[in-house]
Design goal:
The protein is α+β, with helices and mostly antiparallel strands. It has two domains: 234 residues, Exo-inulinase, domain 1 (Jelly Rolls, Sandwich); 253 residues, Glycosidases (TIM Barrel, Alpha-Beta Barrel). Helix content is 18%, strand content 27%. InterPro entries: GH (IPR017853).
C-alpha cells in the first residue's frame, strides 16, 4: 500500500539492484491471537523471494520478553496495508538474514511514519541491522551495526555500536518518510537516505556484516500513538532455514471443518492467509450453500460429498452403510451448485472415515467415478480412521488418501503411514491430519493438552510429512469442532502461519 505522494516516492532513492524480497503488508487478516504478523504472506510478499516470517521482540535496551502480540499488527483496520506498532516500545525481527543483492550491496528500504498524524513528536520508529540475531532490536544497543531512528519532525539519527554516528534531516510529507539504508559487506561506511534530502554517510568502527538481521520497531511513550511501516524492500535474504528440504512433496496446508454448517460458521475468511486446502461442507439441510466457495482461494477447498452418495452410515461399522438409491441425482444437484465456482475446488471429499462407518470399497469407487465423469481431472479425497488403515482397500479412482489418529503420538502415526504407503497405487498421495485443539475424545493424555503441546505437535507432523515424499499435505483437526476458542491457541496458530509460509518459501 503506497502511502506517500508521488513526489516523495519518486524522489526517494531505490536500491541500486532490484530488491529480491518485498513485503507490502497488504491483505493480512488481523485477528486475535496472531494479529496478522505472518498472515497472508503469499499476497504480501510477491518478489522473487517469499515466505519469510517475522518474530516479535521487546524493542527495548534491557532484557525483556516481547510484549503482547497486539503491540505489533499487520493490516489493522485503522492502519490498513501497513505493519503498525501500538501502545509502547516493541520491535519485530525479519526471520531471514539480509544479504547483498546482485550489485554486491545490502540495501533496505521502507516507508516509515514514526507517529501517525503527527509532525512534531520526538517519538521514533527504527530500522536496525545487526549481526546478532538475538538482539532485542533496540537501535542504540552495543551489538547494533546500524541503527536508524526516524522522528516525525524529519530528524534522522544513525547509531553504530551504541554511539551516535550520523544525523540527517528530511522534509516530512504528512509525517511519512521513505528511508533507504545501504552498505557493502566488510565496508566501514554505510549510507542513509530519506525522501529527497541528501544522503548522509555513517562511519563504522567494525566491518559491516555480510548477513545482518533486520529489526523494525517503534519507541512510543504516548499510548495513543502508533507507528507504521510500509512497502519494505530488501536487497535479498538468506531464507535457506525457512524452506522445506528439496525432496519434500508437501504443498498443502489447511483445516478440516473450515465450514460445516451455518450454525458453526464459515471460517474460510479468517484462515485464507494461512492455508491453501480446507475441508468444507455446502450441503446444508435446507439448501445448498455454494456461496461458501466464494471464500475459497483458487483450487483450495475440498468439498464434502458424503451426504450425496451414501446413506445409513451414521454409526461405526454400520451394516446399513451403502450408496444412496438416488446418489446419481443427488450428486448432480451438488455438482450443478458447485460448477459455477469449480475453479475454487481442489478436490471432492468422499464419506468421512468410510470404512469405519461400514462403506464398501466398490461403492467408494462408484462415487469416485461419478465425480470424475462430471468433472474430468477432478481430484477425489478419501480420509479414514487410523485403526482401519492397514486393512482398507482404497479404490484406484481415489487420488488423495488421508487418515486421522488424533490421540496417538507421531511415532504411532508414522507406523500407520508406513503401512498405508506400502499399499497405495503410484499416483496416490497422502494427507495427514494433526490435532490442533484439545479433544474430549483423547482424554487427558500428556503432550496434547496445552497450547505449547499442540504447537509442537504441528511441527512434528510437518517433520513427519517432509520425511515421506508421498505426503502432499496437512489438514488440521480440532479448531471450531469443540469449544476451545482459537484465541486461546496463539502458539498453535503461529505454527500454522509459519508452516504455510514454509510451503510458499522460495
Amino acid at each position: 500500500m503506497v502511502l506517500l505522494g508521488a513526489g516523495v516516492a519518486a524522489a526517494s532513492p531505490a536500491p541500486a539492484a532490484a530488491p529480491r524480497f518485498t513485503d507490502s503488508f497488504d491483505g493480512a487478516v488481523d485477528l486475535d491471537p496472531t494479529y496478522g504478523l505472518n498472515d497472508g504472506l503469499a499476497r504480501r510478499q510477491v518478489g522473487e523471494q517469499r515466505g519469510v516470517t517475522y518474530t516479535r521482540t521487546s524493542g527495548v535496551w534491557y532484557p525483556a520478553s516481547a510484549p503482547r502480540p497486539w503491540y505489533s499488527q499487520v493490516n489493522h483496520s485503522n492502519r490498513p496495508g501497513t505493519l503498525s506498532f501500538w501502545l509502547g516500545h516493541s520491535a519485530v525481527r525479519l526471520d531471514a538474514p539480509v544479504v547483498a543483492g546482485a550489485d554486491g550491496s545490502i540495501a533496505v528500504r521502507a516507508v516509515v511514519d514514526p507517529v501517525v498524524g503527527d509532525t512534531a513528536s520526538g517519538q521514533w520508529a527504527s530500522l536496525v541491522l545487526t549481526a546478532d540475531r538475538n538482539s532485542s532490536g533496540y537501535a542504540t544497543n552495543g551489538e547494533v551495526d546500524l541503527g536508524v531512528l526516524v522522528r516525525s519532525t524529519g530528524v534522522v539519527d544513525a547509531f553504530h555500536g551504541g554511539a551516535a554516528a550520523g544525523r540527517g534531516r528530511a522534509q516530512p510529507d504528512g509525517g511519512r518518510f521513505a528511508v533507504t539504508v545501504t552498505a557493502r559487506p566488510g565496508d566501514h561506511v554505510a549510507t542513509v537516505a530519506v525522501n529527497d534530502a541528501p544522503a548522509f554517510p555513517v562511519t563504522l568502527s567494525r566491518p559491516f556484516p555480510a548477513s545482518p538481521t533486520l529489526f523494525l520497531g517503534a519507541y512510543l511513550d504516548d499510548p495513543n500513538a502508533t507507528s507504521t511501516f510500509d512497502d519494505l524492500a530488501v536487497s535479498a535474504v538468506d531464507n535457506s532455514a525457512l524452506t522445506p528440504p528439496p525432496d519434500s512433496s508437501v504443498r498443502h496446508f489447511g483445516h478440516f471443518a473450515a465450514r460445516l454448517t451455518p450454525a458453526l460458521g464459515n471460517h474460510l475468511p479468517e484462515v485464507s492467509g494461512r492455508s491453501n486446502l480446507n475441508h468444507v461442507n455446502i450441503s446444508d439441510y435446507a439448501r445448498y450453500a455454494p456461496e461458501v466457495l466464494d471464500s475459497c482461494g483458487p483450487a483450495s477447498c475440498a468439498v464434502y460429498t458424503g451426504f450425496e452418495f451414501f446413506t445409513g452410515c451414521d454409526a461405526a461399522d454400520s451394516p446399513d452403510c451403502r450408496l444412496h438409491p438416488e446418489y446419481a441425482q443427488r450428486w448432480e444437484r451438488l455438482a450443478a451448485a458447485v460448477e459455477p465456482r469449480y475453479e475454487r475446488v481442489a478436490a471432492f471429499y468422499l464419506l468421512d472415515e468410510p470404512f469405519h462407518h461400514g462403506a464398501r470399497s466398490a461403492d467408494l469407487a462408484t462415487a469416485a467415478r461419478a465425480i470424475k465423469a462430471r468433472f474430468p481431472g477432478a481430484k477425489v479425497m478419501l480420509v479414514e480412521a487410523g485403526k482401519h488403515v492397514a486393512a482398507m482397500d482404497v479404490p484406484t479412482e481415489v487420488d488423495w488418501v488421508g487418515f486421522d489418529e488424533y490421540c496417538e503420538p507421531v511415532s504411532s502415526v508414522e507406523g500407520l503411514l508406513n503401512s498405508l504407503e506400502a499399499n497405495l497405487e503410484p499416483h496416490q498421495q497422502v494427507y495427514l491430519f494433526p490435532r490442533a485443539a484439545p479433544l474430549r475424545a483423547c482424554g487427558t493424555a500428556a503432550g496434547f493438552q496445552t497450547d505449547a503441546d499442540l504447537a509442537r505437535l504441528q511441527w512434528e507432523y510437518l517433520a513427519l510429512a517432509e520425511r515421506h515424499p508421498r505426503v502432499a499435505g496437512l489438514m488440521t483437526f480440532g479448531l471450531w469442532v469443540e469449544d476451545t476458542p482459537v484465541a486461546r491457541l496463539p502458539a498453535t496458530l503461529d505454527a500454522h502461519e509459519r508452516i504455510m509460509a514454509r510451503l510458499i518459501a522460495r
